[in-house]
Specification:
The chain has about 375 residues and is mostly beta strands. The protein is built from no helices and 31 strands. The two termini are about 20 Å apart.
Length: about 375
């Protein structure tokens, strides 16, 4: 199995409205039980954040970077970052990023540094700028600029150590089909083949064969936004994208994770009604057949959770965002079960990171509309 450091990543940012009931596929659900583990609140972050990223660093600490204070504060994303130390169970500030970012990507490279790319530095200002965090010195330094400015893009660490940056939107929120590769050896970005669809707020998952599965997302502007069922594969050997799939339903603002079996679990998201169209449904992609099939439904509709779904060391999947409680997917049973404990409120654009001891750190996110959509500094530990 690949190392934990190669599995973790994050990203996404959108403007919310109101929460309404959703429509999703039905499936097998089960109540909370001790076999699904539990969550409990732990130390607070230095800053209340949503739409931030979290990365497990070599040595076991977690880098929390950027984000914003909640809906209405999108014009002022944070430069600040902090480190969580599992040994002391506390957060401490570390070096600031060169610019404030939300909806960016953060990728742990094979050399132990973290590549920060893209994101919003204001409501309509996507950036080409990229930077590197060096845990050895606790500082960020600029690296080569992306060829094209983008936010709501994805980043995927390829087996050869390069990073695929795909899609997203420009400063006018026009979806992009372009993709580019970052080479840590040269510190530069170069264009690669275009995707078959221009898409933002999609997901990218590296498969065991080294290809990258791109799923869903959307293009256009509300109220006529298009949300895709389509999926495609990037082949690093050819630098080209080809279609696969499609999903059973169109999804954006969803999450995807590589399962222990090598298949890919896709959960939640919404249709083109956004807050009015959240899904509780989930589906699984089989690389052997190139097809998606429905699996059991979650216990609650969820979206805006791309960085809050992680593969646990026991092979199950923790879903820790987009709802007021966490739940666990068991691939063998094709079902979701509630974890004990509460997040207090639905947490949108929260982040989750599996720690060296097998527990999971859940950080931040903003609350639902009934709470005025503020971000929180609260964090939780999930105990399997």
């Amino acid at each position: 199995m690949e190392s934990r450091f190669a599995r973790r990543a994050g990203v996404l940012f959108v403007l919310p409205f109101m929460v309404f009931p959703s429509f999703g596929l039905t499936g097998s659900v089960s109540p909370a039980s001790s076999t699904t583990g539990s969550i409990a609140e732990t130390a607070r972050m230095q800053v209340a954040r949503a739409s931030h990223t979290s990365n497990l660093l070599p040595g076991g600490r977690v880098l929390i970077a950027g984000g914003f204070a909640g809906s209405g504060s999108e014009n002022n994303p944070y430069r600040s970052t902090e480190l969580y130390d599992p040994r002391t169970r506390s957060f401490q500030p570390t070096g600031n990023m060169t610019i404030g970012r939300a909806g960016h990507t953060a990728t742990l490279l094979k050399n132990g540094k973290v590549l920060i790319a893209g994101g919003w530095t204001g409501r309509y200002d996507a950036r080409r700028a990229a930077e590197l965090y060096d845990p050895a010195i606790g500082m960020f330094t600029p690296t080569g600029n992306m060829v094209i400015e983008r936010a709501d893009n994805t980043a995927a660490l390829l087996p050869d150590g390069r990073v695929l940056i795909a899609g997203g939107v420009d400063r006018n929120e026009n979806a992009l089909a372009s993709a580019e590769l970052y080479d840590p050896k040269t510190g530069t970005f170069t264009l690669t083949g275009d995707m078959t669809e221009a898409r933002g707020v999609h997901t990218a998952t590296v498969l065991r064969n080294g290809k990258v599965l791109i799923v869903g997302g959307g293009s256009g502007h509300y109220p006529s936004k298009t949300v895709y069922r389509s999926a495609e594969l990037y082949d690093p050997a050819t630098g080209k994208f080809t279609t696969t799939g499609p999903m059973t339903v169109g999804r954006h603002k969803h999450a995807a994770v590589l399962l222990a079996s090598g298949r890919v679990l896709v959960v939640g998201g919404s249709d083109n009604r956004d807050w009015r169209g959240e899904y509780s449904s989930a589906e699984v992609y089989d690389p052997g057949t190139g097809a998606f099939s429905a699996t059991g439904a979650m216990n609650t509709p969820r979206f805006k959770l791309p960085n809050a779904v992680v593969l646990l060391d026991n092979g199950k999947v923790l879903i820790a965002g987009g709802g007021s409680f966490a739940e666990v997917y068991d691939e063998k049973k094709a079902s979701f079960s509630k974890a004990e404990g509460s997040l207090g409120s639905a947490r949108f654009f929260a982040s989750a990171t599996v720690l060296p001891d097998g527990k999971t750190l859940i950080t931040g996110g903003y609350a639902d509309s009934e709470s005025g959509l503020p971000a929180t500094a609260s964090t939780w530990i999930y105990q399997p």
